[in-house]
Amino acid sequence: MKKVYPDATAALADVLRDGMMVMAGGFGLCGIPEKLIDAIVASGVTGLTVISNNCGIDGVGLGKLLERGQIKKMISSYVGENKL
Asked: 3-47: per-residue pLDDT in tens?
């Protein structure tokens, strides 16, 4: 297994698929995997189940995936900041 990738897109290239479950770290918007989230958005995968402590906010973090309808199910303890 290659341990160092040039970017997030390359790291996720053989991993992403429709309907998969993704767990994202961070607290609120602090420490979230922004580049990995952007790579998931760009991949166009759909039907995701996402586990995180929150859903991001509109246009930021996991909110990007919500806006594009890529998340089918969200498991989190707090969703108050996201309009979706």
From this structure: 899 999 999 999 999 999 999 998 878 899 999 999 999 999 999
Q: What are phi and psi of 23, to 5 degrees?
A: -115, 125
Q: Report d(CA 79, CA 12) in Å as an integer.
A: 26
The DSSP 8-state label assigned to residue 68 in this structure reads T
Map residue 43 onto helix, strand or coil. helix
Tokens read off for 22: 């993704």
User: With 80 as the cut, is the pLDDT of residue 60 above it?
Assistant: yes
Q: What is the DSSP letter of 77?
A: S
- The structure's pTM equals 0.89
Q: Which contacts qualify for 23-28: CB closer than 8 Å, 24 or more apart? A: 23/50, 23/51, 23/52, 24/50, 24/51, 24/52, 24/62, 25/52, 26/52, 26/53, 26/61, 27/53, 28/53, 28/54
